[in-house]
Structures are given as C-alpha cells and as structure tokens.
Amino acid sequence: MRVTASAVSLNVDDVEASASFLTRHFGFKEAMSAEGFVSLARPDVGFNVCYLRTGLKSLKPESLKHRRAEGLIVAFVVEDIDAEYARIQAEGVKVVTPIETEPWGERYFQVADANGVLIQLVQWMHAPDAAPGSTGPEA
C-alpha cells in the first residue's frame, strides 16, 4: 500500500465556525469545500483537517450521521510552546487547559473551538524515554 494523503474528519454542527477557528488561529487554508463540508490544510502538518456538518445526508455509515467530534483531541507539535501560548492568549482565544508539563516531557495546553473540538499544542521538552522513572501517560 502507498498512502498519498491523509486527513482527519470531524462531525460538527457549525462547519464554518470550526474552519474559521483553525484558519484564524492556526494558519490553515481551505483546500476544498462543498455544502456542509470543508477540508483545511497546512503544508507542514502532513494531514488535512476536515469538518462535516452533523446530519449531512452523504455521511456514512448512517450510525455516525448525528454523532459529534467529542472525546478526541487534535494535537500539533510545535517548536516553542511558550511563544504559542502567549500568542493564543494575545489573540483572545479561551484556553481550556492551561500550559503544563507532564513527567514524561510533554509540555502542552489546550483550546476549544466553537463546536468544542479540542486543539492541543505540544512541545516535547525531552524524549519520552528520557524522563527518570517515567513510562509515559497513565491509562
């Protein structure tokens, strides 16, 4: 198998609100769109973020038609988490999880768009296996 592209698709009530949030605060650009759908891209991310309007007739399987993008996190690894945190605060974005550092070296914070989709920015402060006595996140 040869994968030529990748994307994550999220069901939301307001496609425009989520798309606008990623465009305005995270530099994504619209790659394509149709009624109830938008695909956003950044050349440095490696995958597109797609938003599908909840209940969209063409959404398959039928059992997912009215489910929303809940309980997941879209994470982006960045080079300077503190600078990104300051930038996001200066832009007036509500931070839902303030910046913190986990014992395994993950320094991160989280924001949510108007549909509640969590966006997490992460910087690895040291390799996960370099943390003394750490085996990573607890399940």
TrEMBL record:
<dbReference type="Pfam" id="PF00903">
    <property type="entry name" value="Glyoxalase"/>
</dbReference>
<dbReference type="InterPro" id="IPR029068">
    <property type="entry name" value="Glyas_Bleomycin-R_OHBP_Dase"/>
</dbReference>
<dbReference type="InterPro" id="IPR004360">
    <property type="entry name" value="Glyas_Fos-R_dOase_dom"/>
</dbReference>
<protein>
    <submittedName>
        <fullName>Glyoxalase</fullName>
    </submittedName>
</protein>
<feature type="domain" description="VOC">
    <location>
        <begin position="4"/>
        <end position="124"/>
    </location>
</feature>
<dbReference type="InterPro" id="IPR037523">
    <property type="entry name" value="VOC_core"/>
</dbReference>
